[in-house]
């Protein structure tokens, strides 16, 4: 498939070829144990000195998911309103690609309907907890694809830090902060390998 001897349809490259950022999911329950397998991949992900500064909150309950979705939209709306003030303090918020993405999410729901969210929490007292959360998120997305589920990342859960009701609903322990979430769901069509809009290999990679 990718020209590497011994590679199979379940290697990481083959899984990534089938993974795409899902904007819609089909309704209905997930296959048995799917969420557990996915979050298990996150639990097994590496962290600095095996510090394991990540916790996972699995949002299965439909009412809780609806509240999370509303909370994420509120997070987006609050950010959008104060955007210029934030951008004056942090020039990264003026990055062209970032601004284009924001414009696409200006309205509508930032979480797909019919999803199941795995919210990652980062230990705020530990360096490298961001990297650990990122490793866990990617491990979980690969596992979601491996079990045939569609998935999406949502950074808007991070803005929930100021929303006490969301923090309470998720049961965020003291010293932890909400990080990015992985949302998984039934695909609207079986996952297939598709070309990715990615930087060409030789632009992205240098060999020394
Ligand atoms: C850490 C992380 C956070 C992300 N957060 C969001 C988000 O909040 N909203 C969104 O629409 N996409 C988000 N994305 C998804 C990217 O937009 C998506 O992966 C990218 O568009 C590539 O899509 P593709 O994998 O379908 O090619 C996030 C991706 C990553 C890696």
CATH H level of the domain at 29-74 and 112-196: which superfamily?
A: NADH Oxidase
Number of helices: 7
Helix content: 25-40%
CATH architectural designation of the domain at 29-74 and 112-196? 3-Layer(aba) Sandwich
What is CATH's topology name of the domain at 29-74 and 112-196?
NADH Oxidase
The ligands found in this model are: flavin mononucleotide
Low-pLDDT windows of residues? none
Strand content: 5-15%
CATH top level class name of the domain at 29-74 and 112-196 = Alpha Beta
Question: How are the secondary structure elements laid out?
Answer:
Elements: H1 12-18, H2 34-43, E1 54-59, H3 62-89, H4 96-104, E2 116-123, H5 129-146, E3 150-154, H6 164-170, E4 176-185, H7 201-204
Antiparallel strand pairs: 1-2, 2-4, 3-4
Helix pairs in contact: 1-5, 2-5
Bound molecules: flavin mononucleotide.
Written account of the structure:
By secondary structure, the protein is α+β, with helices and mostly antiparallel strands. The chain has a domain at 29-74 and 112-196: NADH Oxidase (3-Layer(aba) Sandwich). It contains 7 helices and 4 strands. It has helices spanning 12-18, 34-43, 62-89, 96-104, 129-146, 164-170, 201-204; strands at residues 54-59, 116-123, 150-154, 176-185. Strands 1-2-4-3 form a 4-stranded antiparallel β-sheet. Helix 1 (12-18) packs across helix 5 and helix 2 (34-43) packs antiparallel against helix 5 (129-146). The relative contact order is 0.23. Flavin mononucleotide (FMN) is lined by residues 20-21, 105, 153-156, 180, 196-197.
């Amino acid at each position: 498939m990718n020209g590497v001897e011994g590679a199979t349809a379940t290697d990481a490259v083959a899984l990534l070829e089938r993974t795409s950022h899902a904007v819609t999911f089909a309704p209905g329950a997930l296959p048995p144990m799917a969420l557990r397998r996915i979050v298990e991949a996150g639990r097994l992900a590496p962290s600095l000195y095996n510090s394991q500064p990540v916790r996972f909150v699995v949002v299965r309950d439909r009412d809780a998911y609806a509240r999370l979705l509303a909370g994420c939209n509120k997070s987006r709306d609050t950010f959008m309103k104060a955007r210029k003030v934030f951008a004056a303090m942090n020039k990264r918020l003026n990055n062209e690609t970032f601004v284009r993405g924001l414009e696409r999410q200006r309205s509508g729901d930032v979480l797909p309907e019919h999803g199941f969210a795995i919210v990652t929490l980062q230990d705020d007292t530990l360096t490298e907890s961001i990297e650990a959360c990122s490793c866990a998120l990617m491990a979980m997305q690969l596992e979601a694809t491996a079990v045939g589920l569609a998935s999406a990342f949502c950074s808007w859960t991070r803005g929930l830090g100021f929303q006490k009701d969301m923090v309470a609903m998720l049961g965020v322990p003291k010293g932890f902060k909400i990080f990015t979430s992985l949302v998984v769901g039934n695909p609207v069509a079986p996952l297939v390998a598709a070309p990715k809009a990615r930087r060409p290999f030789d632009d992205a990679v240098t060999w020394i």
